[in-house]
Amino acid sequence: MIPQLVTVRVHRSDGRRVRLHLPVVPVALVLSPLLLLAVLGGCVACRVFRVSPAGALRGAARVLWALPGTRFEMAQGRTALLVSVR
Asked: Which parts of the chain span the membrane according to its record (predicted)?
């Protein structure tokens, strides 16, 4: 299943909490021109490093399908960041 929503929570050092809910599909549509450049760059990288583009695409798809349920937490001092993919 493709991830639908990414939640980012930031606990700032002053005690305030910020929570952002980012829907994946609309963000991908807005960034689609950059996605085209990324695909072209990936094709060039596959050519330079002699990697099969189909194999690279298959690997990227496996990583994308493994993302739902992933949590990434990071804390430094009094500031904390939590990224949750649903």
From this structure: 20-40
Q: How far apart are CA 66 and CA 62, in angstroms?
A: 6
d(CA 5, CA 84): 8
Helix axes 32-49, 53-66, angle to 10 degrees: 130
- Residue 27, by phi and psi: left (phi above 0), alpha (psi -120 to 50) or beta? alpha
8 Å CB contact between 85 and 65: no
pTM confidence score: 0.62
Parallel/antiparallel/unpaired status of strands 5-11 and 17-23: antiparallel
